[in-house]
From TrEMBL:
Gene Ontology molecular functions: copper ion binding
Record-stated family: Belongs to the CutC family.
Database matches in InterPro entries: CutC-like, CutC-like_dom_sf
Lineage: Bacteria, Bacillati, Bacillota, Erysipelotrichia, Erysipelotrichales
Species, as recorded: Erysipelothrix inopinata
PANTHER family named among the record's database cross-references: COPPER HOMEOSTASIS PROTEIN CUTC, COPPER HOMEOSTASIS PROTEIN CUTC HOMOLOG
Superkingdom of the organism of origin: Bacteria
Name the record gives this protein: Copper homeostasis protein cutC homolog
């Protein structure tokens, strides 16, 4: 496999679409519109029934930032143990101190939990909130993190390309990078060629309808574009076709 396309999946159906379209890896979440939260164990179990792709399970107890209380950290470790027990291939997480530096002690303990159970440890876009990406990536390397999901400290990977290329050149032989945020078929070629990174992450978002979402002056929607979001197979196939031609 020359390139890896990782699909951000918020449901079992998203996992089915990723498998059917020929994606290479799944990041399994709940609440994708909130940046991704820990999926239920049942979602992981059913996802493994419908796909043979490697599954990276999110461990994130709430929306917002990544400086957690002791109880939140304890909960995330318990979530991690259950996800490992039910067959996740990797865990994706991020722990920061109040000053936005990497929480090395918690990160190290979490990585150890992963590796003791032959599960990959992936640090997510909490990395994009650090002030010094060089000291942060070196800390993650020291913690033996396997991979970082990052947009290069910018809102999109396109905007962060200069730093992404620099990090890949300097540290790519020590830790894997996967580019995320605003990744699509239109910019995939440039992202790969300019950064040197071969792993891309995207939600390939489409919008779906549910007739019970609105009525009686009540709405359970969260966007004017549709009632809920999920992977759009057309966008994903276009992405895979584009990458396969590079």
């Amino acid at each position: 496999m020359k390139y890896c396309i990782e699909v951000c999946a918020g449901s079992v159906r998203d996992c089915e679409i990723a498998q059917e379209c020929g994606a290479h890896r799944i990041e399994l979440n709940n609440g994708v519109h909130l940046g991704g939260l820990t999926p239920s164990i049942a979602t992981l179990i059913k996802a493994k029934e419908v796909t043979t792709l490697p599954i990276v399970s999110m461990v994130r107890v709430r929306p917002g930032g990544f400086h957690y209380t002791p109880l939140e950290i304890e909960t995330m470790f318990e979530d991690a143990k259950h996800l490992i027990k039910h067959g996740t291939d990797a865990l994706v997480f991020g722990f920061l101190n109040a000053d936005s530096s990497v929480d090395i002690e918690t990160t190290k303990r979490f990585v150890d939990l992963c590796h003791e159970n032959d599960v990959e440890a992936v640090f997510h876009r909490a990395f994009d909130r650090v002030d010094n990406p060089y000291s942060a990536i070196e800390a993650l390397i020291d913690c033996k993190v396997d991979r970082i999901l990052t947009s290069g400290l910018k809102s999109t990977a396109q905007e962060g390309l200069d730093l992404l290329g620099e990090l890949q050149s300097k540290y790519g032989d020590k830790i894997e990078l996967c580019l995320g945020a605003g990744v699509n078929a239109e910019n995939a070629k440039e992202l790969i060629e300019r950064s040197g990174v071969t792993q891309l992450h995207g939600s390939f978002k489409g919008w779906y309808q549910d007739p019970t979402t609105k009525g009686n002056d009540v709405s359970y929607g969260y966007s004017e574009l549709g009632d809920y979001d999920g992977v759009d197979p057309v966008k994903l196939k276009k992405m895979l076709d584009t990458v396969n031609q590079i």
